[in-house]
């Protein structure tokens, strides 16, 4: 296959014009034959490319297949497969014995005198201060859902009075008021189970089988050494190994402990839900931890019930209580069933609740206090790295056994000599003590080779880089809920994005209005409208909203709250002259149909006085317009709409083409005798939506976010297709897509590139799969259309990231490879179904997540290349030396130091590299791409062969090359030679660490100043190496070197830089090396199965 050179002459160019490189993981869109070669291998337990919804069987399978030396450390962050069963058992126990468990917890907290969860917390006292209700009775009433007790208190109104709460305005917005309530009824926190202490991490690091064997060998060597050579000299061999092992354990434990603290901080962020409460008549946003008994909380679809309480008022309110009862059924809440449980989700409707129980006075609080936060989760990289570590470990074990046998054979055949040149074993003359001591040393070397060869830290490097990336992503406004999403974003080939608030600012204002049958000159000037029309518009806006208008007592500027669309319409109506509080007091809502993303509209039935009922509707302009039979003109007269319908349709189209969101407001009257009288019938009543009177159509401007066009361009150049999926009018969607750069021109805006959700959903499954590839914009889509699009794209092989904010987006967020929920506009249900929360709702932050995803993959590959170079070189040097001379130049303590550089310090240096723009010039990381790419193999072989060649030459000809052949003290000359080998080997690793930073770039120093941790680790490694060689001679089996030998060591290491540049000029084949390795095994398995 012919190839053309890339821009830097290193790699063949890909079909897209961008060359594939290992830093971005290679191409996701590889050629067909390449894809076939990388197809899924069902017999490989580590071939698990998506862990998001993986079965427990496949997760157990890879763990059982992994070669593991320290299971407690290796599997620390994997998923607890028994978590669901444990959670269910705890939930049942708490439901059955809540009172006893609460009493025990209170007793424990009274002893500790504090709770350290979320925010500061106080233990609830038995006294209820200035309130006329007893804490225990209040808790009991809510937990047992006791209606008779509620009635004894005078219903919800009576409880509110005893709690000194205004049911419409909430409690006073006063710090003292909140503190008094916390003291009387407790705070909305629960005691978190304490995390592992540093000593537990020390204990887990100690569990490594090879380290335990080394400690036993060190103790044996120590005892024999002291017995034969005395305490002064005899402790050195055993003591030095023991100290080196303890150093490895401490450094490992410190690294692991720091990671655990990072994960703990991120979990605290995830639990800290922000919600709205009514305080002093205004809607304020607070932390869930600051909710107190007596608070009035508005509930909307997708919210989490933040505390126990009772329903004040609601419309079609349905609660999903499965998280507490275990039964997956929806419970409808009304005055007959008003009790609400903390931790449940609002499935439908709206309502207001009065908080009656918080923290450990709720079943949710008791449950949260009794279970540990499970941060465990497999990631695809983690599983694949365990497979790689297992393969390398088996090779390392084999090599260690070969070295052990070779050394023992040479020893007992009398062909091995000590440093002075004397034969070590002479049959009949060598004492038993010396034989045991020598055998222990040989065994120690073999075990140390296993320590170096088995890359126990390789799978854990994923956790390290993910912990680092997650912390940094918080600064980039992305909160990672699932670890695997972080790396999967590196493979994303398409992003299905919402429009409102993600591509746009979500700062909405009404800029155009059609009312009274014509366009208003000024959108919010009522002078040309009849008072009757203004009154109907005002009533429709004030009653048919989940927002609020607050007038400060000091006469300050009016405060309008609600969703951005609600705020825009409320502001517009307020300027028209709407008296929000007056309208609400003069009429009452008797039934409501909350806004529904399927129907694209919401309505209310309003009772005026005792006789008049008005139905008010508000929603997508063309949908509401289709239900209208008349409109109200500027004189307040009703006119047939037929003659004007085309005018209104053209007005909607014109506004949509100007990127405006079009909302229509309409109403109708309803005879009182046709309205159900009983509450039960009223709840089932469907609001009439025909024969409506059109009152107004408003055009709402929501500007594009600054920088979104550039973010879309970056995605496109990185091989990630951006698709817009919106509930807005197709013309509005098209206009915004053109503005954002998602569509390049008007000529591109033809079906199916731009399509309506209704058209897409009516296609057959096969047709949807064909059409999905070509869709760029989907307008008037429902959440189910988004789900169908995600499914079709995934079947086509795309790795799909999807954004969502509503409850109905949950299935699409769950189905997608990466679900991205919105931190500001997103509901709790959407957030819980997502993998990553975009805290600022900004599309540019989504692009940053893609960069971090690619960075995770690239950093792991850098670390693999660095670690395997050390592995290959150390193993070959020791094997060749052991087989040929019966001795190894790299001693046990030295190998442990190399292991520390390689495993912990190397991972810290390379796994924490920040992402670069270079990553976004590549196509996405292929999910089936090999971990070790051909570029990595080339770099690895070039460096390791150079190191092996230089060090073997020093091993066999070092005495002559270094001018030590005439040294009268042969033992000292050998020690200088071996120290030189050790020093040169470490220098090679230090310099090669720079090469590993940029596996496919000539300039390995670019961006190094932006990673101070890397510079610090390289500097510390170099300084420690000087100290080990110069001052820890007897301990590390080294002798001080002259400045000439130090210079020679540095030059040997320095050669790796120009060598890396020359190596990068060597072309590599496109077919991955792993394909050639696997072919014989697959053929063998196929022949056996035939």
UniProtKB/TrEMBL annotation:
One of its GO terms (cellular component) is plasma membrane. The keyword Transport applies. Keywords: ATP-binding, Calcium, Calcium transport, Calmodulin-binding, Ion transport, Magnesium, Membrane, Metal-binding, Nucleotide-binding, Translocase, Transmembrane, Transmembrane helix, Transport. The chain crosses the membrane at residues 201-226, 238-257, 388-412, 442-468, 863-883, 895-912, 945-964, 1013-1033, 1045-1066. SUPFAM superfamilies: Calcium ATPase, transduction domain A (SSF81653), Calcium ATPase, transmembrane domain M (SSF81665), HAD-like (SSF56784), Metal cation-transporting ATPase, ATP-binding domain N (SSF81660). Belongs to the cation transport ATPase (P-type) (TC 3.A.3) family. Type IIB subfamily. It is a multi-pass membrane protein. Residues 1-52 are annotated as: Disordered. Residues 1-16 have a biased composition (Polar residues). Its EC number is 7.2.2.10. It is found in: Membrane. It holds the Pfam family Cation_ATPase_C. InterPro entries: ATPase_P-typ_cation-transptr_C, ATPase_P-typ_cation-transptr_N, ATPase_P-typ_cyto_dom_N, ATPase_P-typ_P_site, ATPase_P-typ_TM_dom_sf, ATPase_P-typ_transduc_dom_A_sf, ATPase_P-type_domA, Ca_ATPase_N_dom. It comes from Eruca vesicaria subsp. sativa. This is Calcium-transporting ATPase. Residues 30-40 have a biased composition (Basic and acidic residues). Catalyzes the hydrolysis of ATP coupled with the transport of calcium.
């Amino acid at each position: 296959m012919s190839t053309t050179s890339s821009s830097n002459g290193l790699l063949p160019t890909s079909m897209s014009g961008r060359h594939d490189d290992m830093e971005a993981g290679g191409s996701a869109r590889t050629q067909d034959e390449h894809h076939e070669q990388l197809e899924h291998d069902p017999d490989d337990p580590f071939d698990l490319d998506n862990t998001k919804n993986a079965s427990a069987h496949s997760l157990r399978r890879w763990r059982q297949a992994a070669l593991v030396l320290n299971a407690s450390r290796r599997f620390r962050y994997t998923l607890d497969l028994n978590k669901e069963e444990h959670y269910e058992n705890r939930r049942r126990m708490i439901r059955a014995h809540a009172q006893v468990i609460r009493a025990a917890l209170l007793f424990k907290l009274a002893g500790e005198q504090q709770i350290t969860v979320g925010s500061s917390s106080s233990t609830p006292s038995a006294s209820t201060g200035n309130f006329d209700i007893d804490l225990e009775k209040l808790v009991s009433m809510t937990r047992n859902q006791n209606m008779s007790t509620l009635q004894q208190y005078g219903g919800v109104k009576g409880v509110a009075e005893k709690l000194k709460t205004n049911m419409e305005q909430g409690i006073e917005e006063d710090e003292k008021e909140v503190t008094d309530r916390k003291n009387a009824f407790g705070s909305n926190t629960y005691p978190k189970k304490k995390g592992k202490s540093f000593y537990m991490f020390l204990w887990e690091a100690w569990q490594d089988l090879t380290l335990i064997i080394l400690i036993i060998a060190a103790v044996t060597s120590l005892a024999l050494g002291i017995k034969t050579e005395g305490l002064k000299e005899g402790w050195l061999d055993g003591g030095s190994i023991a100290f080196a092992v303890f150093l490895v354990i401490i450094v490992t434990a410190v690294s692991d402990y720091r990671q655990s603290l990072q994960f703990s901080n991120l979990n605290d962020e995830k639990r800290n839900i922000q919600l709205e409460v009514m305080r002093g008549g205004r809607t304020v946003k607070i932390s869930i931890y600051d909710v107190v008994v007596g608070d009035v909380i508005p509930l909307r679809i997708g919210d989490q019930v933040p505390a126990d309480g009772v329903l004040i008022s609601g419309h079609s309110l349905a609660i999903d209580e499965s998280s507490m009862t275990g039964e997956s059924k929806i419970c409808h809440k009304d005055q007959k069933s008003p009790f609400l449980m903390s931790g449940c989700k609002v499935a439908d409707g709206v309502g207001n609740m009065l908080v009656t129980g918080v923290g450990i006075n709720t079943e949710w609080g008791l449950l949260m206090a009794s279970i540990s936060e499970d941060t465990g989760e497999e990631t695809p990289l983690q599983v694949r790295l365990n497979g790689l570590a297992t393969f390398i470990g088996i090779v390392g074990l084999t090599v260690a056994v070969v070295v052990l046998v070779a050394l023992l054979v040479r020893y007992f055949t009398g062909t091995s000599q000590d440093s002075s040149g004397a034969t070590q074993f002479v049959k009949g003359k060598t004492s038993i003590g010396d034989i045991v001591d020598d055998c222990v040393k040989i065994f120690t070397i073999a075990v140390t080779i296993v320590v170096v060869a088995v890359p126990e830290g390789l799978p854990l490097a994923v956790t390290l880089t993910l912990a680092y990336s997650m912390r940094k992503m918080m600064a980039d406004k992305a909160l990672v809920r699932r670890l695997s999403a972080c790396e999967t974003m590196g493979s994303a080939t398409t992003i299905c994005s919402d429009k409102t608030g993600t591509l746009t600012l979500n700062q909405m204002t009404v800029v155009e209005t059609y009312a009274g049958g014509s366009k208003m000159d000024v959108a919010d000037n009522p002078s040309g409208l009849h008072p009757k029309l203004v009154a109907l518009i005002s009533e429709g806006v004030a009653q048919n909203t989940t927002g609020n208008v607050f007038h400060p007592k000091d006469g300050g500027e009016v405060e309008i709250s609600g969703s951005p669309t609600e705020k825009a319409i409320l502001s517009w109506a307020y300027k028209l002259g709407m008296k929000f509080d007056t309208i609400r007091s003069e009429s009452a809502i008797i039934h409501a149909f909350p806004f529904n993303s399927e129907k694209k509209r919401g309505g209310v039935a309003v009772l005026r006085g005792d006789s008049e009922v008005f139905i008010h509707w508000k929603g997508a302009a063309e949908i509401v317009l289709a239900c209208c039979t008349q409109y109200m003109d500027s004189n307040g007269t009703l006119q047939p709409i037929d003659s004007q319908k085309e005018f209104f349709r053209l007005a909607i189209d014109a506004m949509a083409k100007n990127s405006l969101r079009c909302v229509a407001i309409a109403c109708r009257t309803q005879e009182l005798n046709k309205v159900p009288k009983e509450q039960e019938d009223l709840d089932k009543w469907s609001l009439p939506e025909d024969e409506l009177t059109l009152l107004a159509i408003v055009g709402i401007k929501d500007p594009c976010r600054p920088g979104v066009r550039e973010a879309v361009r970056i995605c496109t150049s990185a091989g990630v297709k951006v698709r817009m999926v919106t509930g807005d009018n197709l013309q509005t969607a098209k206009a915004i897509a053109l503005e954002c750069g998602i569509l390049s021109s008007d000529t591109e805006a033809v079906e199916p590139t731009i399509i309506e959700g209704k058209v897409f959903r009516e296609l057959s499954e096969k047709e949807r799969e064909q059409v999905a590839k070509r869709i760029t914009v989907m307008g008037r889509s429902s959440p189910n259309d988004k789900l169908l699009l995600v499914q079709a794209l995934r079947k086509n092989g795309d790795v799909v990231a999807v954004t969502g904010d509503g409850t109905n987006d949950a299935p699409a967020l769950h189905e997608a490879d990466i679900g991205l929920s919105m931190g500001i506009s997103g509901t709790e249900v959407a957030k819980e179904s997502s993998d990553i929360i975009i805290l600022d709702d900004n599309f540019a932050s989504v692009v940053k997540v893609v960069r971090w995803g690619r960075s995770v993959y690239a950093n792991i590959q850098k670390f693999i290349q660095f670690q395997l170079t050390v592995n290959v070189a150390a193993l070959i040097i020791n094997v060749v030396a052991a087989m040929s001379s019966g001795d190894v130049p790299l001693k046990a303590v030295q190998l442990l130091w190399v292991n520390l550089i390689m495993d912990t310090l190397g991972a810290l240096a390379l796994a924490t590299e920040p992402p670069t723009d270079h990553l976004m010039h590549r196509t996405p990381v292929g999910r089936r791409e090999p971990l070790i790419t051909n570029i990595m193999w080339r770099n690895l072989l070039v460096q390791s062969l150079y190191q092996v060649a230089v060090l073997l030459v020093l091993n066999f000809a070092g005495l002559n090359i270094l001018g030590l052949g005439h040294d009268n003290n042969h033992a000292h000359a050998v020690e200088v030679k071996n120290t030189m080998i050790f020093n040169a080997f470490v220098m090679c690793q230090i310099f090669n660490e720079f090469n590993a930073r940029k596996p496919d770039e000539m300039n390995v120093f670019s961006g190094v100043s932006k990673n101070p941790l890397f510079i610090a680790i390289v500097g510390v490694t170099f300084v420690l190496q000087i100290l080990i060689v110069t001052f820890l001679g007897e301990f590390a089996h080294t002798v001080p070197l002259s400045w000439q030998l130090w210079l020679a060591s540095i030059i040997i290491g320095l050669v790796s830089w120009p060598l890396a540049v020359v190596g990068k000029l060597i072309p590599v084949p496109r077919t991955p090396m792993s394909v050639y390795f696997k072919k014989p095994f697959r053929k063998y398995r196929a022949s056996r199965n035939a």
